[in-house]
């Protein structure tokens, strides 16, 4: 009898499990549309020129690697605040944003979840139905009961905005609502600015706690355009949480660079909140790693590198949009009768294709085209070389 005799074998992570299956697949035409990673036109993970330039500058004056402050690099946190709220914004200028460097967007979400559990232990959490798989798991691990608000209607393959609004309007005061700031994962459908106004009105009327997850800023319409939703919450006089990820926008997945920002009522409140966030960090991993944060801080803090980053990010965004159009065209050419035009109204890395689990399994087993069982495909992994094969394969299972 061991201490671990009763430990159950947990199911494999659905997406990372797909990766393992993909790696073992011997089909020479195989295409991985499972994981949410941007690949360039050659199917390669990009190393951005702005990142290389920042690293070169950093190497020119190498620094010893002491511990960072618990909340991370000061210039990094400052850069995040300016990026998320705007350098000229009232929240930034008044100093009422508490920002900490996080281990990717995931780490930022978890710091926020742990802090919220202390603050309001009885609160429930609502995530969209469907949502990024890890939202539920992460808030559940933090000790919350996690429910959903309606978001996507599988029958019409469209947003269920009326359902979303009704569910928010019925939520108990204090409920934590996780909202995708842009590029909804997994559906690719974002709500319109006018719909955001209605969501904000419901959040305000019901006294809900908004937690905006911004993992794809710059992938829908642009950095400022995608960040505009933050300005709407500020204008409504709300206090709220924002998690930022630079995994995709800087192609720095393995460096784990993200941040949590909490907009407070005033500067003094922000200082108190920051002191509590630091306890969450100190008792988990003490302080963040240096390299990724230093790279991002360097790029954000240098006008030329920042301009280069914006250009490179625009390149990724434009290429994804072109692939969406090519997918719609290619599916039609491959004989798909159904109107697949909805793919171009979706934004960000993903498309909810509307394909059934059976069709997705066939795509994988017969054609080596890997998406999730829910029908989610990463359009950011398509390129001129694999798109025809993907279109023909999809046409055969439809
Ligand atoms: N939120 C959403 C909606 C995401 O899609 C992701 C990345 N898949 C994250 C958060 C986490 O990002 P990171 O890899 O930086 O932890």
Give a topology summary.
Elements (H helix, E strand, L loop, with lengths): L13 H11 L6 E2 L16 H12 L13 H12 L4 H5 L2 E7 H16 L4 E6 L3 H9 L3 E6 L1 E2 L4 E2 L1 H9 L6 E5 L12 H14 L2 E6 L8 H13 L4 E6 L11 E7 L3 H16 L8 H10 L2 H31 L8 H4 L4 E3 L4 H11 L1 E2 L5 E3 L8 H11 L1
Parallel strand pairs: 1-12, 3-4, 3-7, 7-8, 8-9
Antiparallel strand pairs: 2-10, 5-6, 9-10, 11-13
Helix pairs in contact: 2-11, 2-12, 3-11, 5-6, 5-10, 7-8, 12-15
The protein binds 4'-deoxy-4'-aminopyridoxal-5'-phosphate (PMP).
The site of 4'-deoxy-4'-aminopyridoxal-5'-phosphate has 12 residues, from helix 5.
Helix content: 40-55%
Number of strands: 13
Spatial shape: globular
Helix/strand order, N-terminal first = HEHHHEHEHEEEHEHEHEEHHHHEHEEH
**How many helices does DSSP assign?**
15
Placed side by side, the strands forming the largest sheet appear as 2-10-9-8-7-3-4
Main sheet record: 7 strands, mixed
Mean pLDDT: 96
Keywords: Aminotransferase, Pyridoxal phosphate, Transferase
EC number: 2.6.1.-
Organism: Ottowia pentelensis
GO molecular function: transaminase activity
